[in-house]
């Protein structure tokens, strides 16, 4: 029998995607489930729902709570966390790079490093110099990575991945899919892995 | 030392308040923490946030997901569940009754029975006849209960409780407070109890 599979859908600006990205491999190892990392863009998905900004900015009382909740969660999981100076950041370039990196084997390390840049180091992840540093950090030659990320084919592939997410009922991040079954939120990661194992 | 206390804020229309209401006592017993049940109204709290309807109706893709998620959660916790024919229901009368009942010792049983009426039996919980049946079921004389619930004092008390919720940063239900610390959602119940115990 093939190894059970789970798709992990994430966006670099998404706050709860940060703990999910840092913890998903540990869950996968424990469960014996393969994780497919699928970067996407939340902007178009929010726009389809009539949102011009993150719901955490649109609903500011909820947004205030989210930052406190995220801080508590990160403390509980011993993940470093510093509230970014601006939110949401533009994750487009980082997502293009991550998608290109998935084919080359460095997409997952790069993704985790982008989350650290955003939610720990307070860097601007839409900035080419920051992204080049992050690439360097994970042992990838920035110039080649940028070239691969900005081909029309890769840009279209990210758009298609985002469209696919929306078509499959994804409305926020992080999300997890096990075939047609959708799980939304870092809070549902454990349940999603149990589902993948058939429990 | 006094027993640790947690306040449980709920609204009868709220979907995730159903599993929270059915499970909160078990958590309290296990944790050795006192629970104070605080019925409130989400309508005014949503209105303050610019929402004229439940976010699960405003954002329909998210709403579709919520029903599936709730079904899965209830199955996992072995709670019966049937999707109500209309959502959200008007929980005003039930909340007035629950608040009056808290003083008389039947508020918690009544609250659980209202949730069952809404999310298991498919009844209309704004209907006086349904509420009278629910009161009967928990051994309360309906006429007296209605009289107590509809005094100006009790109506004002429910309004004040809802205002207090909003002032304390509550934006949805269920919510849990431990002094000034807020936890939102059935998903945070365990964390809230751990917080109350000082862990």
UniProtKB/TrEMBL annotation, chains A, B:
Transmembrane segments: none annotated. One of its GO terms (biological process) is naphthalene catabolic process. Its EC number is 5.99.1.4. Gene3D superfamilies: Glutaredoxin. Belongs to the GST superfamily. NadH family. Residues 6-191 form the DSBA-like thioredoxin domain. PANTHER family: GLUTATHIONE S-TRANSFERASE KAPPA (PTHR42943), GLUTATHIONE S-TRANSFERASE KAPPA 1 (PTHR42943:SF2). Keywords: Isomerase. It comes from the Bacteria. It catalyses: 2-hydroxychromene-2-carboxylate = (3E)-4-(2-hydroxyphenyl)-2-oxobut-3-enoate. The active site is at residue 14. This is 2-hydroxychromene-2-carboxylate isomerase. GO terms for molecular function: 2-hydroxychromene-2-carboxylate isomerase activity; glutathione peroxidase activity; glutathione transferase activity. It holds the Pfam family DSBA. It is an enzyme of class 5 (isomerase).
